[in-house]
Amino acid sequence: MSAPMTEQFSHETVLLHETVDALQPKDGVYIDGTFGRGGHTRLLLSKVSPNSTLIVFDKDPLAIAEAQSLKAEDDRVQIIQAGFAQMAQEIEQRGLSGQVDGILLDLGVSSPQLDDARRGFSFMSDGPLDMRMNPDTGMSAADWIANVREDDLANVLFQYGDERFSRRIAKGIVMARQQQAITRTLQLAEIIKASHPKWDHKKHPATKSFQAIRIFINGELDELDAVLQGSLKILKPGGRLAVISFHSLEDRAVKQFIRLQANGPELPPGLPVMESSIEKLLKPVGKAIKPSAQEVAVNVRSRSATLRIAERL
To answer: Do 183 and 142 form a contact (C-beta atoms < 8 A)?
Structure first.
């Protein structure tokens, strides 16, 4: 029997207590920029005052349905169906720029999205080759693969997946689509496997390629850059930013953003600029936090997570 469009897939929230505690929840306005299935939001609600507001963002219609159920139970919740790249604009429209106490971002794909074959993210179970966070907007992975140039495909696999055999895999995909349209996840996974000469046998050979295509289809790194820049306008002095990333590209972007805003831009040697004239907008809080061995043992998908925290000056 096919699964109905309601939750039948479990999701373990990653770095739950570490992330919520990093925001120092009290009385104020908080934002969960990646509501997902609401794990972080529920704990945050339990720790903020009755007068606080918690604004949640998500593009996924199933996540929004979950958020609406939570809002029915707790009127401190406000819902915005949009990607976090639109956060600064949405918050400005509500007159809350510079008044937010904390922003939380969990950049991972939620387990229900990965486990539900109909969403087209999984190379382990068959489904339509989609990969869009919001299946109602944008181009599906199948449509993109049907038309992308071989060089462009190889560049995406290398840049976003760190796939060393990107050109060989891209060639295999282009040759395969000349024989038959590529519309299913397992179909693409098998093409990648057949084109891949060597891989870590602890991982599926399509792991890096699927990650790269998902990042590209959803413009994930561009959206991350937009929300990080927007956080500077949204947070009030003393407000906290907590970001969980799951691969090196994301973590590098978060780390470099915090460092730049904490130290100011790198200037040529000898330039007569006084330290006091360099604008510093963030202060890093502690070191990067990784899941404990106990958390990884319970939820293996948490193993690659990294939490970074910064405070608005």
So the answer is: yes
**What is the secondary structure of 153-218 as a DSSP string?**
HHHHHHHHH--TTHHHHHHHHHHHHHHS---BHHHHHHHHHHH-S---TTS-TTHHHHHHHHHHHT
Residue-wise burial string across 212-243, b where 16 or more C-beta atoms lie within 10 A, e elsewhere: bbbbbbbebbebbebbbebbbebbeeebbbbb
Work out the number of other CB atoms within 10 angstroms of the CB of residue 195.
20
Q: What is the mean pLDDT of the chain?
A: 92
Neighbouring C-beta atoms of residue 268, cutoff 10 Å: 6
Structure tokens at 15: 């770095």
What is the reported pTM?
0.88
Alpha carbon distances (Å) from 33 to 36, 153, 241: 9, 30, 11
State yes or no: pLDDT of 5 exceeds 50: no
Is the four-CA dihedral 175, 179, 183, 186 of positive or negative sign?
Answer: negative
